[in-house]
Amino acid sequence: MANNLLSINDLSKKDILDVIEFSNNFIDDEGNFRKENLFPDKIVANVFCEPSTRTKSSFAIAANNLGCSVIDFDIDNSSVQKGESIFETVDALNLMGVDLCVLRHPESVIRELAECLPKMVFINAGEGSISHPTQALLDIKTIIDHKENLDGLNIVIVGDLDHSRVTSSFVEGVSNFDLGSLIFCGHPEMCTKYQNPKIGKYESHLESALENADVVMALRIQYERFEKELNLDLETYKSEYQLSSEKLGSAKGDAIVMHPGPVNYVEITEAVYDSENSVIRQQVANGVAIRMAVLSRFLGS
Ligand code: NCD
After folding, report:
1. Residue 95: what are its φ and ψ, rounded to 5°?
2. Ligand 1: which residues within 6 Å by Cβ?
3. CA within 20 to 30 Å of 198's CA: 87, 170, 178, 223, which one?
4. Which residues on neighbouring strands pair with residue 278, listed in sequence order?
């Protein structure tokens, strides 16, 4: 395994399955996370240059559960506000003895940082619209929890795919498996990168896309990443692309519904979010176990 987790492509299929299996050790029979004092001498810095609830908190909880010291780096009250670059910022943390940096940044800076600071471990917690490897790991774990393995599964991803690092890392991750099908669905202007995908296919009609689906992942519209204002009639959008109970009726009865959060209830109805098919809240919990496994693997190597 590489020294850093910059992309899901840094992991082989075996690595992915090993991390997922390892993560299961951190959940006890009651579903609580085990606290293991494995790395009391390690310092983890959470450096989030974009908003986050689940990813940031789960990394902090995971690091605490492993006995690490955690720095919740407060970008808004840091010298970044005085014009300091991300490189000088992370270098300063490195000089102070931080062992591992969990980084979320709107731009692709993590690779260069990792090259400049080889003693520090870097874990990518979201790189613009490009990648979000630990989300892919927790998504694959959640699917395995319910479906045992990914081979033969029909998976549908619907929403604003062009801006979704969740989609890109998920696609890279599942390309290791022998899926039944992978269908991309959503407003054509939000799926321009997925019209002729390397794997899978694009289907504009949601009910057709959902036929026989085992796994359905819904994604919000990432308003903050659109370069020009989005002229969208929300009611028309919802009638075509919102995952409703009625549309979900085309999928298999035991299909699981996923969403990385945050949920806006434009891309999915409250009824589907709350339905028995929904594993969305389990994804959040799996985030802690996966990040405990990832931190252990990369701090231990
Ligand atoms: C996603 C992200 O930040 O990429 N959320 C997450 O990590 N759980 C998806 C999103 O912001 O919509």
Report:
1. -65, -25
2. 54-55, 126, 132, 135, 165-166, 220, 222, 260-261
3. 223
4. 257
Alpha helices in 38-193 (DSSP H): 54-65, 86-95, 110-116, 133-147, 165-174
Give the nearest ligand 1 atom to 55 CA: 7
- C-alpha to C-alpha distance for 75 and 132, rounded to whole angstroms: 20
Confidence of residue 223 (pLDDT cuts 50, 70, 90): confident
Backbone angles phi, psi at 57, to 5 degrees: -65, -40
Q: Which CATH number fits domain 8-132+284-300: 3.40.50.1370, 4.10.375.10, 3.40.640.10, 3.40.50.2300?
A: 3.40.50.1370
Q: Which has more confidence, 74 or 68?
A: 68
Among 8, 132, 138, 259, name the best residue to mutate to test ligand 1's pocket (greatest count of ligand atoms within 8 A of Cβ): 132
pTM: 0.97
Extended beta strands in the chain, E state: 43-48, 69-73, 100-105, 121-127, 154-158, 181-185, 201-202, 215-218, 256-258
Nearest Cα neighbor of 34 from 64, 7, 54 is 64
Nearest CA to 106 out of 78, 84, 129 is that of 129
The per-residue pLDDT for range 89-137, each reduced to its tens digit, is 999 999 999 999 999 999 999 999 999 999 999 999 999 999 999 999 9
Do 11 and 121 form a contact (C-beta atoms < 8 A)?
no
User: Quick check: do 8-132+284-300 and 133-279 share a fold?
Assistant: yes
| CATH number 3.40.50.720 given to 133-279 | no
Cα of 44 vs centre of ligand 1, distance in Å, is 21
Domain regions of the chain by residue span: 8-132+284-300, 133-279
Mean pLDDT of 55-64: 98
